[in-house]
Amino acid sequence: MRCSLLRPEPSQRDRLIEIRDNLLDRIAEAQREGWLGEVKGLEISLASAEEKLAQLDAALKPSVIHLGLPTFGQIAGRSSTF
Questions:
Q1: How far apart are CA 53 and CA 72, in angstroms?
Q2: What is the reported pLDDT for 77?
Q3: Closest Cα partner for 4 from 52, 38, 56?
Q4: CA neighbours closer than 13 Å in the CB half-sphere of residue 49
Q5: Strand, helix or coil at 76?
Q6: Percentage above 90 pLDDT, the chain
Q7: Do the Cβ atoms of 56 and 8 come closer than 8 Å?
Q8: Which residue in 16, 28, 68, 71 has a CA-CA distance of 20 to 30 Å to 5?
């Protein structure tokens, strides 16, 4: 999960959500038990899981690219005053 080169498949989104939820539960348990070192490691993994989910969401979101195509008036170099 922590590997920055890991690019999960969109079909694995539900699994990533399970991993994130499990990490949240494990962090709560570690805090309850006073396992401070474990909390820090789990928080790093949680941040990585959330980053991977954000990457997946961004990749799945359709994006529009404005190409800046000129209008006819710009191409013709003149405008009509009718």
A1: 43
A2: 65
A3: 52
A4: 19
A5: helix
A6: 49
A7: yes
A8: 28
Please check whether residue 45 is in contact with residue 2, taking contact to mean a CB–CB distance below 8 angstroms: yes
| DSSP secondary structure string for all residues of 16-71 | HHHHHHHHHHHHHHHHHHT-HHHHHHHHHHHHHHHHHHHHHHHHHS-------PPP
Tokens 């962090």 correspond to 27
End-to-end CA distance of the chain: 64
pTM of the complete model beyond 0.70 = no
